[in-house]
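Problem 3 from the worked examples.
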Amino acid sequence: MLSEEDIEFVKNNYLKISTEEIANHINKSIWTVYGIAKKLNIGNFKWTEEKVNILKKYYVEKDWDFLFDVLGTNKKSVIFGKACSLGLHKRVIWTEEYDNVMKKYYPSSNFEEIFSKIPNVTKASMQHRATELGIRCDIHYWSEEEIQLLREKYPYYPNKYLSDIFLPNRNAVSINQMAMKLNLKKDSSQNNKVFVPEKMISDLKDLGAKLGRTPSIDELVFCGLPSDKSYDRYIGGYKKACNLAGLEVNVSLWGSAKIYFSKNNDVCYSHSELVLTNFFIDNNIPYEKEKLYREISNDLRCGTKRMDWFLGGEYVVEYWGYPDVKDYISGIEIKQQICLDNNLKMIEVVRKDIRKLPDVFEYFINKYL
């Protein structure tokens, strides 16, 4: 039973602390919390003119705790989304700790590590600070011989193989970054490959039979098979490779308690993803499931990040299942920033949108009638 105290606590704290914290405090499920918020009509943060002006005044310079306090919400994604729509970007306040991160990772061009350790940093601010500190990306200074060798070999070999055999002074990350700058692509034909897809599937099937189960990602290389990254490149993902090999997808590899398969046999990690995917299928909306961001953008932050769907070859679609979870928020923000900085169209879907998909995707329904 819900007490008056429980309801009052939700009312006073829904926009101030996470849903999980509220649920733990009143000893109820997060779904109960969502239900209370809906009944109280407090589920959405209201942007008044006064709050927008506060955001404009303080977003760039003040820290998140200050913004949470003056705006009356700790929903970082809400504040970040509004700031992006206003063209606001936070500046990095450089500390000795951040400078040490730059000194350690910038010379080797390990931008992903820098992005993960310095909040709000952009490539431009990173480069400006590197100039001030007198450090440079030595790994960027490729010789003409190295570049020519990369042009010749990159399409046909995995980056790790290139690093081990042809370019010993370059790591796989550096090779990938230079290839992106040169607009080099991996060859999709069957010629001159280190790995042949048919053999990769056959070997995976044999290993599964030997183990009596689906091999884990960590077991692939250990047992003499290509890495999961190679399966991603040549087969379209390790999950797809398992399906082709007739092996049950090992859900423990991706931290999901249950997986689903769409009408087109796409792997979906939640019932909501299944509903969305089948909605696209039923409405003849062309989509690509789990497309790599780097396939449509050369932004170094893309890494191995995937979008949930790519609709009609023009829109990134992301389903945010847990927008109130701290670690989840950071992933949301990186993808939002990638799309913002690269002028990519993004449609963001949350749980409440599941009931009104025809409204959310009306443009596509009409386009592909």
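Problem 4, a separate protein:
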Amino acid sequence: MKRILFVDDESKILDGIRRMLYSNRNQWDMQFALGGEAALQLCEAGTFDVIISDMRMPGMDGATLLGHIRDRFPSTARVVLSGYTDAALGARMLSVAHRFLAKPCTESEIRSTVERLCLLQDLVASTAIRKIVGKVSELPSLSTTFMHLRQVVLDRNTSTVQVADIIQTDIAMSAKVLQLTNSAFFGLAQKVTSLSGAVSILGMETIKNLALTSEVFRVLGPSSRMPQSVCDSIQRHALQTAAIATKLPVGRGLREITVVAALLHDIGGLFLASKMPDVFRSTATRAKESGCQRFEAEEEVLGTSHAEIGAYLLGLWGIPNLAVEAIAHHHHPTRIEHSEFDSSIAIYVANLLAHELDDSQRGSKGNEIRETDRACLEALGVLSSLAEFRELALQSRK
């Protein structure tokens, strides 16, 4: 039974949540804390799977509380449930919360959020992934340059010059960000030759995402065990998937999350190629001989796939939870509920169409889709839009 902790400084609000979620009492062990200090005491007494906290509270506010939870109980998923917030508090929230729910919130919204978070926790903490990771002597870590960049982007007072200056301290990152900026993905009319120009044109958040992509491909890049061609192939597919995803009807507020997820959706494959090349080659051979997809061969051999492995790594690196979720489910989007065309659906569809384009260029398959994908698209309610999405995918190549 999952343990859920609700935190607010008003007892009437907690009582209302308790009544609203009464029907979930047999599925969840729900506890209610009046304020941040009481919440920490309950967490010390026993771990929780999810904590859902108000933002504005006297004494210890929600951002401070969730910061303590992040540092002391990192496996607990953190959700903000709040009716209002100011810019400063909102910036702090981004660094401590996995999800945000706005008051008033319905029972179905809370239930869906909790179930999605718990499923993601279970996937990335599976025995299969722990077994795989345990075989790697040292997990890769992101550079201090990127960590610094991620922090300053949260500050609303940060200038484009400051962002450019930080990236320029890393020559390899600078070169890669400029390469990605000038790629066909953005289709800019003129070549961008300076980082400050790139930041001005694309914005800080997009540049941060490009820096993240650069960093991930660096730490999992080519080595004596993995040829450059493998890395290049995965990156080309990532850029094509991102180009398609940005044209799909995902909500405006989810665009940046969708781009991050698209650019990094196959880093689990990059991890296998870099750290476990024998497994990477054997699953590729198995997929080719049996006619199945690569992730299916991985699931047969490893009990999990590159999607979940990538999500695990990104979770360790503190990448936004919604992007981690989209990556974890990009081969099985029906594992979670969807109330809209969200990032998870977008990455699934974009990945499918990117592979389709690649196959058509090689003269195989064309517009044929597997029955399992057809059934998935139908279950997601988007099968009727497939022809339209294909046209958008073709436009992404122009």
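Solution to problem 4. The beta strands are 2-8, 28-34, 50-53, 77-82, 99-102. Residues 134-395 form a domain with the Hypothetical protein af1432 fold (CATH 1.10.3210.10).
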